[in-house]
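Lecture 7, part B: from sequences to assemblies.

Below are the input chains for today's worked example.
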Amino acid sequence: MSTNLANLLYLIPIVSFILALHFLSNPAHARRGNQIGAAGMLVAVVVTWIKIGATSWWAIAVGMLIGGAFGAVAARRVKMTAMPQMVALFNGVGGGAAALIALAELHRILPEPGAPKVDISLAIVLSALIGSISFAGSMVAFAKLQELIGGRPITYPGQQFVNGAVLLTAAASGIALVSGVQDEWLLWVLVGAALLFGVLFVLPIGGADMPVVISLLNAFTGLAVAASGFELENNVLIVAGMLVGASGTLLTMMMSRAMNRSIANVLFGAFGQVSESAATAAAGDGGSVRSASAEDVAVMLAYAHKVIFVPGYGLAVAQAQHDLHQLADLLDAKGVEVSYAIHPVAGRMPGHMNVLLAEANVPYDELKEMDDANPEFSRTDVAVVVGANDVVNPDARNNQGSPIYGMPILNVDQANAVVVLKRSMNPGFAGIENPLFYNPKTVMLFGDAKDSIDKLIADVKGL
Amino acid sequence: MSHNTLLVFELTILVLAIFLGFEVISKVPTLLHTPLMSGTNAIHGIVVVGAMVVLGAPHKDTFDWIVGFLAVVLGSANVVGGFVVTDRMLEMFKKREPAKEADASRDGQNGP
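Predicted structure of the full complex, as structure tokens:
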């Protein structure tokens, strides 16, 4: 097959990927979009297969079988709560593949007389650099989310300096390669330093900042793949890689905006340590906390007109999504209007909470985004906060001294009454006091989220 | 086509893809951001095509071959896993059924 014909046929996967993303604008036909994307991918593989001819065909087949089997089994088995680490893993292997391609390409072209063309060596350097960072960073993110290593931020003095030095080493070898030094070991130094940098830069980042990190690594892999496209002069890699790069960049910006922090602050701030002074400042005017029994809360819910549930990651940790849906159905049967308000950073990756609730068979038209939910709270009788804390903290709106001041929140304090399901009075991951708990409108229902919801179900049924 | 013409052509495609990407993705609701991520994850699995080219090219030595083979394994894991997991997720997003039967179909498909 000629290169021209192959490039012409590559238009099919390119169009199908764009359609796949386009169809994701609506949950009603998003699944079909994904299938179109998969079909496009198959076309890309078949066209490539025919184009490269018979050399090593069996090696390619065996490699695809091994990789494909691993991917299929992992994707079938993974639990929806573990989705962030699964995405991190697939992201990492994609980045790793891009880095390996760079190694093989440089190894193949170096002995040829004359230095490789500047743009080709630049593409090789970039895909090796970004791909390696993405691979190592994703693996650390995977290990953190899977709790193989601690999720707490890991910091030490001089951290930024060490990270900077490692990245500089990688950059220096890259520049040497691009400027025509024909030494293969330079690429090895580059890859080694980039891998080390990937590890070092994700290690200090705490679990709650993972939505930003995962989005960023996603963008990295996309860029690495686009760079591979330049080194292999392959259009479909350039377009597909860049689409992913754009998507990851956009999500990264959205996530850091939803936390009201700059991307640099998330990556280098090691959140979770800054807040002690502010926390004590906010707690000063404390006041008292009202706690309620499950029976009291059940009565409040059953006789309300409109109830909004605000789930946070604590709900997923307690594995109480199904119970929550059951409670909502029960209230719905009693004529209560029920919906769910989801903060953009609820969960461990963008949109994670929506997937967890969809898994519990909650219809997606009951899941409200922050901007749609906020005007509703003033017309709501009871807002029920389950395992969420910082995303409903009114200090983000009112207290300029608070470390989360300016972060967009769900305005649950505007509801007529607020019920907070919480394990204890411990503050959330950021260690920030939440005045919502001291609000006279608020009652606390202490205990494990799953147990509390099960009690509520029994009590509502008994009414 | 000369090398430079090709390069300019590729850069044009790259820039258009950036704008197209931002345009299409800004229309995806936050509801679907996780499937968007895993879906784009599957799409960057296109790297498997590059890996096939590397492994399929006449190779110089064993090193070349091993690296290419590993790239094919990683790339295929990326493609297959990405599409399968996205499909599993999107399958779960359902609209409210017009006639509501409360408990009947709860425990059926898609266990945890």
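Note for the exam: Residues 29-92 of chain B form one domain. Keep this in mind when comparing with the next example.
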